[in-house]
Amino acid sequence: MHRWLCAVYVLPTTTPTEPKHLICGDRAGSLHLYTLHEAKAQDSLRGVHGRNGVTSLLCGQGGVVYSSGRDGYVRSLRVCEGRLLPLTVTRVTGANWISKLITVQGKLLAVCFHGVKLKLWNVEEEQTLLEVECGGAHRSWDLHVCRARGWLVCAFLKDGLPYTFSTSITDKLLPLIRPPFNTQETSALRVFLQQRGETVFVTGGEDTTLRLHALQHKGQRQTLGVQRSHLSGVRALCLVEGTNSTQSDDGSVWLVSAGGRAEFKVCSAV
Q1: How much is the CA Rg of the chain, to the nearest whole Å?
Q2: 217 with 199: CB under 8 angstroms?
Q3: Quick one: which of 52, 4, 50 has its CA closest to 26?
Q4: 35 with 49: CB under 8 angstroms?
Q5: DSSP string spanning 160-221?
Q6: Helix (H) / strand (E) containing 117
Q7: What are the UniProt keywords, alphabetically (predicted)?
Q8: What is the pLDDT of residues 10-63, one digit of tens each?
């Protein structure tokens, strides 16, 4: 089968006897796993990055592979027993075109475009590090990070003339003192559990995500998980305990979320 490939990555091996794998991303937004010197794909994830294609593949720590696409999503996956195992999905806020993924000081960054702006996005902390007005992605451009000096240089052509932009990247990678509940306005909050000095609660916001947090008695907060399934902002949350089941030991708790476009979502909280 003929495929128009957009990105390719050869996975590193840990032992001499381990087979070498090749991950390919194509124009149809699919990911394919190959063993070197074999023409047939071992496994495929079809259309995971939409119809506009995969733009970048990168291997991170622990053998986790990251992929990006023109759908505005960063996906993580792992190769397990000859299969592609999806792990997480992250949407870049305020960008509809991810050009490539890079790592700087151990942090995964996405180089994105939205309108006439180039944006550098911290995938883990979900925040914009910088924006450069360059005229958009449909032009010649390049971005280089000098890791030794902690400096970033962006060059692009605009109106037939070359332009450059440079800035320090080290100060922009400092950790957040207090990360926000959501990347945009938080619209709903519901306490899920309180025990042993710890409070577990859920928030929903205009960034279309549901986030599970744990707040300790010392004021320290940790994000336990993020769910991205709403098409529009989350406006209301409700916890429903138990079901109509005849089982007497049913301790199920269901989280019901409501948002824009008259959308309801129900998921198991335990």
Answers
A1: 21
A2: no
A3: 4
A4: no
A5: TEEEEEEEESTGGGSPPSS--SSSS-EEEEEEEEEETTEEEEEEEETTSEEEEEEEETTS-E
A6: strand 117-122
A7: Cytoplasm, Repeat, tRNA processing, WD repeat
A8: 988 877 888 889 999 999 999 999 998 888 999 999 999 988 899 999 998 888
